[in-house]
Amino acid sequence: GWVTSLAASAPTAFWDSAGTDVDFNDPTTGGCTDGADADALKGQLTVDASGGTLAAGARTATLLTGVTKGSSNAFNQATVDSITLLTGAAGSEDIGDWTLQGVTLSQSIPAEIPAASDYDINMTLSVVAS
Question: What is the C-alpha to C-alpha distance for residues 69 and 5, in angstroms, rounded to an integer?
Fold first, then answer.
């Protein structure tokens, strides 16, 4: 089997901006107040792969048997540092060409944070044998 997951490049990362920075993993009041983590930032990112479209890729007729989409989950520092997008069961194909499109990302941003167009966060996509 295998698992594909998404994580920030560091659990202490944050959405960086020239203006006000925003946290991605502070669950306190839905990300709208600062929690017990080391930073003084607010905010929480939720990833929902369940509504995405999973299909065999264009290059192969790979079977999707045993490949499942992840559910909706929110980052929570030191508790949920990575979120599963796809899981391949032990009997699933482990060499293939899949596409997963339509994964929803939603970020809680406290009302006092001004709008900005330059938010940036480094994320890592991993595929690991399970």
Answer: 11
96 vs 117: CA distance, rounded Å: 37
Sheet holding 123-129, edge to edge: 67-69, 82-88, 2-8, 123-129
Q: What is the pLDDT of residues 35-79, one digit of tens each?
A: 777 788 999 999 999 999 999 876 666 678 889 999 999 999 889
Contact 8, 120 (CB under 8 A): no
Tell me the backbone φ, ψ of residue 128, rounded to 5 degrees: -130, 135
Give the 3-state secondary structure of residue 29: helix
Query: Cα 37 vs. chain centroid, distance in angstroms?
Result: 19
What's the CA dihedral at 110, 113, 114, 118 to 10 degrees?
-100
User: pTM for this structure?
Assistant: 0.89
Q: Are the beta carbons of 67 and 88 closer than 8 angstroms?
A: yes
The span from the CA of 19 to the CA of 114, in Å, is 8
* pLDDT tier, 119 (very low <50, low <70, confident <90, very high otherwise): very high
